Amino acid sequence: MATMNGGDASGDASGALKKPLVLVVDDEPFIRQMIRIALRRQFDIVEAGSAEEALEIIQKSPTLRAVVSDARMPGAGGIELMLEVQRKYPSIRRLLV
């Protein structure tokens, strides 16, 4: 299940800047939580528990700036996910952990 904590780096109606949006992908909820805690001060975070879920989120998130993914997950792993992101969304930064 995806969770979201915010938006993009553009200003909102009040003129305040929002933090860049980062997708964290890992099949282990505890690991996603630890990464979210480490990044939450500088980034808005959205989470996915699989590569398939991550691709759905990416398609619906035009303001997404980066993807942080576990390399080993059941089904399509992080390497396959990152190759797909690079092919379809080359402007999104990628970090494989």
Task: Give a brief outline of the structure.
The protein is α/β, with parallel strands linked by helices and about 100 residues long. The protein has helices at about 30-40, 50-60, 80-90; strands spanning about 20-25, 45-50, 65-70, 95. The longest helix is centred in the middle third of the chain and has 11 residues, at about 30-40.
Distance between termini?
20 Å
Structural class: alpha/beta
Total helical elements: 3
Mean pLDDT: 87
Shape descriptor: globular
Q: Give me the strand/helix succession.
A: EHEHEHE
Percent of residues in beta strands: 15-25%
Compute the gyration radius: what is it? 13 Å
Largest sheet: 4 strands, parallel
Q: What share of residues is helical?
A: 25-40%
Write down how many β-strands occur, each being a DSSP E stretch of 2 or more residues: 4
Strand order of the main beta sheet, please? Answer: 2-1-3-4
